Amino acid sequence: MFALVDCNSFYAACERLFRPDLQGRPVVVLSNNDGCIVAGSEEAKALGVKTGMPVHLARDLIARHKIAVFSSNYALYGDISQRVMATLETLVPQVEVYSIDEAFLDLSLMGEAELLPLAQQVRARVARWVGVPVCVGVAPTKVLAKLANHAAKRYPATGGTVVLTDPARREKLLALTPVSRVWGVGRRLMGRLEALGIETALDLARADSCMIRRRFSVVQERLVRELNGEPCLSLDTQPSPRQQVIHSRSFGEPVTTLPPVRQALSDFAFRAMESLRKESLYAGRVTVYLRTAPMGKPQQLFPNTLSAALSPATADTRVVVHQAQALLTRLWKQGYRYGKAGVILTDLRGRGQVQSGLFTSEQPAEPDSGARADALMAVLDTINQSGAGKVWLAGQGMQADQRSVWAMRRAHLSPAYTCRWSDLPVAR
Ligand SMILES: [Mg+2]
């Protein structure tokens, strides 16, 4: 047995957590740079606000219905997400964190009579301890647990929990569910299934699994089996090793000169390396890309990309910033309006897998290599995480106002209530 726990309108719920005045009011959250709507509360969705809508198209709706607007506050959402997951871990032994607001739970040791009370307890405890509403779907397979969760969200009479153990009830739900709602059915697959006359989840469950395997693949065959209550997907509690670290961002406004892009790229590389070191990894390759602004001319049609090997693999910010700058110099073409840049670190490995170069010295006399560089980076990270002050490279820009050209536009940012001392809410 699996449970899928999914937070309801998660970003909006986080924004409401310390703003009780927003209960029942429509809330939307914007993308980086405040460009598009990326999430909305139920009330906002009911007013016709859609995910992905450019914010300038929603202006009228926002004004007319007094919709509360927020820039995305990922520091807050990430912290609340961890609290939700930690709460789930107090109730069951195995939790697979599937996304920022979803987790699968392993309920295989539970008796059938215990399932509904547990699902209700999950809802109540997350609501009480964290303050975020969740729905819980319980079923013998992950694909069915996803559908049970949809039903729990969609039908208020369920009280936010659906346990799908009864085959008759399962069949009824599958018949009501369009095949596009099944986990793993994308738009293209949906078209091909509909051409075969498969329109509901029940049609798919009743399809001949051998035929599905022949026409599609073993992945879709597994879907059919899962819909019939035969588990093919197991709980995956081991996070897969990281393949890459990306730090990229759209500029607040198009940039036409090199110096601000240099600063931005230094900053992106700096942050990417911080994330890398948090996981004790070393990067073997750095890639830099530049994209022209989506509006206005002239434009380059494709993002421009260049990459270079880092040998030996490194965790030293200075090495990567230096390399990224060299790549940028080769990439830069004057005369365009640039809208976005990014740094990507790949070929990642742990410390034990780093091969030192034949000609690099590990002697302490060499200030930029090996153990001394690691020690320096550790000091840098300690200072920057302590909250006592910040240390950065001069190449990232000396003053905050210089950096504002490429800084993100976040005009509607809420406080980091739970992750910054100065933003702690005050109770009177
Ligand atoms: Mg959700």
Mind explaining what this structure looks like?
The protein has 428 residues and is an alpha+beta fold. The protein folds into three domains: 2-162, 2-Layer Sandwich (Alpha-Beta Plaits); 166-227, 5' to 3' exonuclease, C-terminal subdomain (DNA polymerase, domain 1), CATH 1.10.150.20; 245-397, DNA polymerase, Y-family, little finger domain (Dna Ligase, domain 1, 2-Layer Sandwich), CATH 3.30.1490.100. Helices cover 38% and strands 20% of the residues. The chain has 15 helices and twelve strands. Bound molecules: magnesium ion. Magnesium ion is lined by residues 6-7, 10, 101.
Full CATH superfamily name of the largest domain: Reverse transcriptase/Diguanylate cyclase domain
- Percent helix: 25-40%
**Roughly how many Å apart are the termini?**
45 Å
- Whole-number radius of gyration? 25 Å
Number of helices: 15
Indicate how many domains the architecture comprises. 3
CATH architecture of the largest domain: 2-Layer Sandwich
Structural class: alpha+beta
Task: Write the CATH fold name of the largest domain.
Answer: Alpha-Beta Plaits
CATH class of the largest domain: Alpha Beta
Bound molecules: magnesium ion
What's the quick description here?
With 428 residues, this protein is of the alpha+beta class. The protein folds into 3 domains: 2-162, Alpha-Beta Plaits, CATH 3.30.70.270; 166-227, DNA polymerase, domain 1 (Orthogonal Bundle); 245-397, Dna Ligase, domain 1 (2-Layer Sandwich), CATH 3.30.1490.100.
